């Protein structure tokens, strides 16, 4: 059980980090999208 | 514009690049109750992992959608900036101007100088734009549109270095038509006149229309030649009116009745 909990924590860490990167990328793309949209207007 | 075209939001294979750091397992290290059995801890971790995975999925989907729109906009921008598109737009504009010019000249009220007219009709007022060809070296604005105007303002706009002059119809306040005149920013060989409203009186024919001249420094200018021209115009107008009225049988009858009525009144007194 100790081993199972450890693996889960590791996986949770990994997915959390991935989520953080996804959120940052999404923010960047949103910003670029609206800048481009504004430019085209 | 502040955007980074090198952004590659589809690069989602970054999980292998992530640093392998341990969970700051505060729930298990600091707050973890001693009575919590290992099964419960595994269950909670699994639940949290499911939640984070679901969030991860939603984020990935949203990112894909936004990226798709972003790339579509980028393609549109490239298309608009392509030399072929710019050339096409210029040709289209030239054709439109020529067509409008032909339409206006062939119309019964067309002026000999042939301005290009674009009309936008709204519920409140009719707005029309006319382009008048002018020499680039000519610093004054000359607009022959068949009506007389009174200037009431002038200002410089940010988008165009040439001054913009504002006019009211000389029949104001009975006629509320206004216009603004400015040299075209795109093509300085044209003067753009924008009209608001429709005249409630007839204008003068092109052959007898008065030339409205603006001196950009001194404001409204009336040179001697123009005064002479106006005098000639008035004479022509009077002759035309007299000619048309004498040909009108109703008018002659009404005139005869009025004169005879006046004679009768005088004979009574």
UniProtKB/TrEMBL annotation, chain B:
<dbReference type="InterPro" id="IPR003657">
    <property type="entry name" value="WRKY_dom"/>
</dbReference>
<keyword id="KW-0805">Transcription regulation</keyword>
<dbReference type="Pfam" id="PF03106">
    <property type="entry name" value="WRKY"/>
</dbReference>
<keyword id="KW-0804">Transcription</keyword>
<dbReference type="InterPro" id="IPR036576">
    <property type="entry name" value="WRKY_dom_sf"/>
</dbReference>
<keyword id="KW-0539">Nucleus</keyword>
<protein>
    <submittedName>
        <fullName>Probable WRKY transcription factor 60</fullName>
    </submittedName>
</protein>
<feature type="domain" description="WRKY">
    <location>
        <begin position="145"/>
        <end position="204"/>
    </location>
</feature>
<keyword id="KW-0238">DNA-binding</keyword>
<feature type="region of interest" description="Disordered">
    <location>
        <begin position="1"/>
        <end position="31"/>
    </location>
</feature>
<keyword id="KW-0175">Coiled coil</keyword>
<dbReference type="InterPro" id="IPR044810">
    <property type="entry name" value="WRKY_plant"/>
</dbReference>
<feature type="coiled-coil region">
    <location>
        <begin position="42"/>
        <end position="69"/>
    </location>
</feature>
């Amino acid at each position: 059980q100790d081993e199972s909990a450890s693996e889960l924590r590791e996986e949770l860490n990994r997915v959390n980090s991935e989520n953080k990167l996804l959120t940052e990328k999404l923010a960047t793309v949103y910003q670029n999208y609206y800048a481009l949209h504004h430019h085209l207007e | 514009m502040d955007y980074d075209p090198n952004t590659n939001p589809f690069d989602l294979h970054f999980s292998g690049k992530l640093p392998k750091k341990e969970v700051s397992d505060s729930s298990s290290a600091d707050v973890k109750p001693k009575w919590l059995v290992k099964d419960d801890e595994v269950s909670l971790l699994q639940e949290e992992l499911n939640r984070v995975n679901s969030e991860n999925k939603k984020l990935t989907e949203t990112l894909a959608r936004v990226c798709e729109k972003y790339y579509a906009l980028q393609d549109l921008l490239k298309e608009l900036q392509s030399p072929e598109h710019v050339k096409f737009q210029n040709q289209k504009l030239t054709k439109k101007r020529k067509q409008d010019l032909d339409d206006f000249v062939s119309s019964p009220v067309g002026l000999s100088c042939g301005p290009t007219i674009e009309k936008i009709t709204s519920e409140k007022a009719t707005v029309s734009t006319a382009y008048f060809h002018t020499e680039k070296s000519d610093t004054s604005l000359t607009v022959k549109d068949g009506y007389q105007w009174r200037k009431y303002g002038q200002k410089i706009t940010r988008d165009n270095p040439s001054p913009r002059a504002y006019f009211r119809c000389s029949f104001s306040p009975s006629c509320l038509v206004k216009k603004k005149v400015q040299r075209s920013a795109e093509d300085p060989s044209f003067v753009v006149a924008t009209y608001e409203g429709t005249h409630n009186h007839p204008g003068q024919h092109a052959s007898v229309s008065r030339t409205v001249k603006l001196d950009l420094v001194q404001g409204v200018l009336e040179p001697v030649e123009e005064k002479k021209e106006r005098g000639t115009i008035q004479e022509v107008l009077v002759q035309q009116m007299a000619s048309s009225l004498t040909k009108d049988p109703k008018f002659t009858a009404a005139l005869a009745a009025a004169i005879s009525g006046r004679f009768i009144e005088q004979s009574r007194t």
